[in-house]
């Protein structure tokens, strides 16, 4: 049946005789015989939109495995923990699939495929041979029609001719397609033969425009019927009138995919054409992805490049990870360089991210991605391209918020789409590192062999129609020479487990830094010529200008920094590995033979890693080796925080630069990324000299508009400093208990910050921890968490969650959690006061004196939020199972203490308390140009000074403990020894070198004049505060200068006389004055006791 013959039949309006033969051979008798092929092994029923589907939490391999309602009713899973939900359409029922469910959980009608099962063997020989002829004839006939009559619109032909042709094609396909669907669904024997027929080569060759060097050439190739259907489905403009094609023929693939034989072919075709599928309107064949790419056997087969006859591989030498990452880079290249080529109505960000997540989550063998240097480079490059693609662009004639929609910000959507992949890759790296740590091989030789033998230069795409020069350029840049193909090779064969683990992590860090530094250099290259806001004695001590408010400035920043956030993930993994090392050494010390000295590796008996090494030591080493610019890194992850602060100050109108819309998206949808940004700032704080770090944070916050009041940026700067100091960053996630702890913290703060947190919202919070621990569904942790910390309340015709009681608040809530902003403080204050009133009333009822002592009586305790305390004083590290190693603990404590003593931080805190007192004293004339300071803003300054005194006490106590040989636990146990200020001064001189910036320029930058002349906190508080150079809170007349101690005493008196002090301002003032030895005689004895009690209170 040639093309000319088919076109003649079409012109005559008649059907080919072959169509008649194929239909007539399947009479009623034949159909009746096929109906008795035995009990089906799998269900495979196509699921419709909004259909009820069930996932068993005890038996399903992952969340993508589902039962239809009928199978669930006949399954043992009825008595298991399960979730019922409405499906979104697409996919099939997985009952009977041993790769999706435990064998014992199959329903009574499906027994599942066994290894080597051939459903066609149950057919009679004559029946089988007849079906082989029919299925092969059906598919070859249909594939030939699709080749001869392509479904794309030919504009050169009259519309009437095209419509007539489409009507004839519909007639020619209708009955044969119905027959194919019947054979695919009537039984598993006929379905197996249909699968084999789909792998048959087509009769007609397929013409392909293939690029040969710099020239194009058209070649003819014979492809399988299955691939011909894929190619037809990829047509740029499909005919919309061919109903049989749209609603029937394509569903043939969905009916056959339940047969394991067809999963590898479908998966390979999805991977072969993934680049093109990613940038066109969603196609039917894409709905098959979840059925094949989430199956462990399929992923393993495509990783190890095993053969699957009779199918012939169509993706060449590439593994599934090569294809996935190539497609991800393809979309990233378009988003970064040629976004105008992407169709506006296509969600290009979803598919490559989702498919990548499916594949890497399906099999533990996918972690070869973090061992192959080429694959890991591709992953890092994709993240950097995403980070380079989203910028805060100022409004022009062509762009602006009027045309801006967050959902169309492909870079931001791609980062959100890769959120779960981050969790998977995190576990991959940890798994490899943990295996090396214990002296085991992280992979079998069979798993690594395909990667070691892969070409050093990335192969050409198996899709001959793909010709995107920039994409090819990016792939070529991932070439390996002279580097080793495997990241493990650098560890050496004679090294012990600890050395191999450290060498492996060092390789990951170096590869990651190489791409990040190039991306940062490209961004900062927009600042030409470079100007500096702070100068120093050499080029290393110069702070470049980074002013986003200047309309003439380039705008290389954004809220999208996945490259930095992934680096933060690697740091967390390394910290977790060091914790595991510490635990192994502790176990070894309890079991080793007494005659052997020193710590030893569990597998070799040799010492390999000193427990006092800091987790940031390796990070500092790779930063130095790669010549990374710490100031560039700080700016990159600080700018989202600064932009949020500027929006809160009203510096970005809603129609300028789209910053307001992006900020709202950042604070709501990207909540986990906010915590990651602040964590990375915390890591950079550990790597950077304290004065230089604090000065850079201050300068970036201090960028203002000319008409902005002085001090408007103080609260946001102090809040960031407090978040860095008070958030517990040391404990990393390694098991289900860690996930529960972090999930509980996120749930509590979400409930506190919003009065509309329903169970649906809480499920969304739990979804952020998906794939964090393999096999753990975070949703299963919610019932116990909510039962412990929350209660249901009826509000506005809906049930929402509220904090359980005041004790739960004190144990879980922090005013300086990364998601808490200043505008939330009044609502949080109101909620806490209400909880305390309930607590007081409940206590009074228990004491039987409700009529005598009520919540409103003077004898009832006042509502005072827990005062901020340094985290390690609240919970000593040795009692925390997930705590950091000793070396990291020392560095962390030292850096936090030093940050709180820097002139940059203390000058802003001191200026704030002076400005607040000036405002409340009614000094309108003197404070006219200053931003009004509220009680909530005073809270930040008092908290900083309160923590600074705590830090001085820790420094002094640690020094005395070191000289006496006693452990430094006095601060944690509640005692308050006097501070030795000479020790504090010596400590600062030893560990806090000057920033290197010009002293005169720093004097102009810091809000308080003379702050640089004092060394210790005590000296700074005793110095008279004089503000000159710009309108300030005090004049330059020495007679009006006041010490900060005097101001603190007045603030204490003021808040002590108030009926309420929910933030504990008076208590913090008392503690500060006690620390510097300036306790006011007016402070009653009971006030001192209360201050002592609150400052040592542990929130749990």
TrEMBL record:
| One GO CC annotation | cytoplasm
UniProt KW keywords: Ligase, Metal-binding, Transferase, Ubl conjugation pathway, Zinc, Zinc-finger
Pathway(s) annotated for this protein in UniProt: Protein modification; protein ubiquitination
- Keyword Transmembrane carried by entry: no
Domain UBR-type as annotated: residue spans: 41-112
One Pfam family linked to the record = zf-UBR
Entry-linked CDD domains: UBR-box_UBR1_like
Q: Which GO terms describe its biological process?
A: protein ubiquitination; ubiquitin-dependent protein catabolic process via the N-end rule pathway
What protein name is recorded for this chain? E3 ubiquitin-protein ligase
């Amino acid at each position: 049946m040639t093309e000319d013959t088919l076109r003649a039949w079409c012109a005559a309006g008649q059907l080919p005789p072959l169509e008649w033969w194929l239909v007539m051979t399947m009479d009623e008798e034949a159909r009746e015989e096929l109906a008795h092929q035995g009990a089906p092994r799998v269900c495979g029923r196509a699921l419709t939109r909004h259909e009820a589907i069930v996932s068993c939490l005890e038996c399903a391999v992952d969340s993508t495995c589902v039962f239809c309602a009928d199978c669930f009713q006949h399954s043992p899973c009825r008595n298991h923990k399960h979730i019922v939900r409405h499906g979104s359409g697409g996919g099939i029922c997985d009952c009977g699939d041993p790769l999706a469910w435990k064998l014992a959980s199959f329903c009574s009608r499906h027994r599942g495929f066994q290894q080597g099962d051939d459903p066609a063997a149950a057919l009679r020989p004559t029946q089988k041979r007849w079906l082989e002829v029919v299925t092969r004839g059906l598919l070859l006939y249909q594939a030939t029609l699709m080749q001869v009559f392509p479904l794309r619109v030919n504009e050169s032909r009259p519309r009437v001719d095209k419509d007539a042709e489409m009507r004839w094609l519909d007639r020619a396909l209708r009955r044969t397609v119905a027959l194919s669907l019947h054979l695919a669904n009537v039984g598993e024997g006929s379905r197996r033969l249909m699968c084999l027929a789909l792998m048959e080569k087509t009769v007609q060759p397929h013409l392909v425009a293939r690029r040969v060097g710099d020239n194009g050439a058209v070649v003819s190739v014979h492809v399988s019927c299955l691939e011909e259907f894929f190619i037809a489905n990829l047509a740029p403009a499909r005919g919309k009138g061919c109903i049989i094609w749209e609603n029937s023929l394509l569903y043939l693939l969905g009916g056959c995919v339940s047969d394991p034989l067809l999963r590898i072919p479908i998966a390979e075709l999805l991977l072969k054409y993934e680049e093109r599928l990613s940038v066109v309107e969603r196609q039917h064949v894409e709905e098959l992805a979840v059925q094949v790419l989430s199956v462990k056997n399929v992923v393993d087969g495509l990783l190890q490049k095993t053969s699957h006859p009779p199918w012939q591989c169509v993706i060449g030498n590439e593994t599934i990870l090569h294809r996935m990452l190539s497609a991800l880079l393809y979309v990233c290249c378009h988003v970064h360089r040629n976004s105008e080529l992407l169709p506006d109505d296509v969600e290009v960000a979803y598919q490559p991210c989702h498919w990548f997540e499916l594949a890497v989550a399906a099999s533990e063998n996918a972690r070869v991605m973090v061992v192959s240097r080429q694959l890991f480079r591709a992953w890092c490059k994709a993240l950097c391209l995403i980070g380079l693609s989203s910028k805060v662009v100022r409004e022009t004639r062509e762009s602006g918020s009027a045309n801006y929609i967050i959902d169309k910000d492909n870079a931001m959507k791609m980062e959100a789409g890769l959120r779960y992949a981050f969790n998977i890759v995190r576990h991959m790296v940890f798994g490899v590192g943990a295996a090396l740590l214990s002296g085991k091989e992280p992979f079998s030789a069979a798993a690594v062999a395909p990667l070691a033998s892969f070409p050093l230069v990335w192969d050409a795409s198996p899709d001959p129609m793909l010709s995107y020069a920039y994409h090819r350029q990016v792939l070529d840049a991932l070439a390996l020479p002279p580097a080793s193909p495997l990241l493990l090779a650098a560890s050496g064969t004679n090294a012990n487990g600890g050395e191999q683990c450290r060498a492996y992590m060092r390789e990951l860090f170096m590869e990651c830094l190489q791409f990040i530094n190039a991306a940062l250099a490209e961004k900062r290259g927009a600042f030409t010529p470079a100007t500096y806001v702070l100068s120093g004695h050499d080029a290393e001590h110069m702070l470049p200008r980074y002013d986003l408010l200047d309309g003439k400035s380039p705008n290389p920043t954004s809220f999208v920094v996945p490259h930095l956030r992934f680096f933060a993930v690697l740091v967390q993994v390394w910290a977790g590995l060091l914790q595991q090392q510490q635990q192994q050494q502790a176990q070894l010390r309890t079991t080793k033979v007494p005659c052997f000295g020193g710590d030893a590796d569990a597998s070799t008996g040799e010492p390999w890693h000193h427990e006092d090494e800091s987790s940031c030591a390796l990070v500092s080493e790779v930063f130095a080796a790669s010549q990374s610019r710490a100031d560039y890194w700080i700016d990159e992850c600080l700018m989202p925080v600064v932009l949020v602060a500027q929006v809160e100050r009203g510096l970005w109108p809603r129609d300028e630069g789209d910053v307001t819309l992006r900020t709202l998206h950042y604070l709501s949808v990207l909540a986990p990324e906010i915590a990651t940004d602040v964590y990375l700032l915390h890591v950079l704080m550990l790597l950077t000299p304290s004065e230089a770090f604090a000065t850079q944070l201050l300068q970036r916050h201090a960028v203002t508009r000319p008409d902005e009041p002085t001090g408007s940026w103080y609260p946001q700067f102090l809040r960031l400093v407090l978040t860095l100091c008070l958030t517990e960053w040391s404990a990393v996630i390694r098991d289900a208990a860690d996930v529960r702890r972090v999930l509980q913290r996120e749930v509590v703060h979400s409930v506190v910050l919003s009065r509309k947190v329903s169970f649906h919202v809480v499920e969304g919070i739990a979804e952020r921890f998906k794939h964090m621990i393999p096999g753990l569904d975070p949703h299963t942790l919610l019932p116990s968490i909510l039962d412990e910390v929350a209660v249901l309340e009826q509000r506005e015709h809906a049930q929402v969650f509220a904090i359980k009681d005041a004790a739960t608040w004190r144990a879980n809530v922090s005013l300086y959690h990364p998601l808490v902003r200043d505008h939330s403080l009044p609502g949080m204050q109101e909620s806490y006061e209400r909880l305390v009133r309930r607590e007081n009333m409940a206590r009074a009822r228990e004491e039987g004196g409700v009529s005598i002592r009520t919540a409103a009586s003077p004898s009832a305790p006042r509502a005072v939020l827990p005062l901020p305390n340094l985290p390690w004083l609240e919970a000593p590290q040795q009692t925390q199972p997930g705590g950091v190693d000793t070396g990291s603990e020392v560095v962390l404590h030292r850096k936090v203490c030093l940050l709180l003593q820097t002139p940059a931080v203390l000058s802003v805190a001191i200026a704030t308390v002076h400005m607040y007192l000036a405002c409340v004293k009614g000094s309108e004339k003197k404070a006219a140009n200053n931003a009004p300071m509220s009680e909530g803003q005073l809270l930040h300054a008092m908290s900083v000074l309160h923590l600074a005194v705590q830090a001085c006490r820790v420094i002094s106590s640690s020094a005395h403990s070191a000289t006496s040989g006693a452990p430094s636990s006095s601060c944690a146990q509640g005692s308050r020894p006097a501070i030795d200020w000479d020790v504090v001064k010596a400590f600062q001189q030893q560990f806090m070198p000057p920033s290197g910036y010009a002293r005169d320029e720093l004097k102009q930058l810091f809000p308080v004049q003379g702050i640089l002349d004092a060394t210790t906190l005590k000296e700074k508080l005793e110095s008279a505060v004089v503000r000159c150079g710009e309108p300030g809170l005090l004049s330059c007349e020495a007679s009006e200068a006041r010490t900060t101690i005097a101001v603190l005493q007045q603030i204490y008196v003021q808040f002590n006389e108030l009926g309420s002090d929910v933030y504990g301002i008076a208590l913090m003032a008392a503690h500060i004055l006690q620390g510097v030895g300036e306790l006011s005689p007016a402070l009653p004895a009971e006030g001192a006791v209360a201050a002592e009690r609150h400052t040592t209170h542990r929130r749990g």
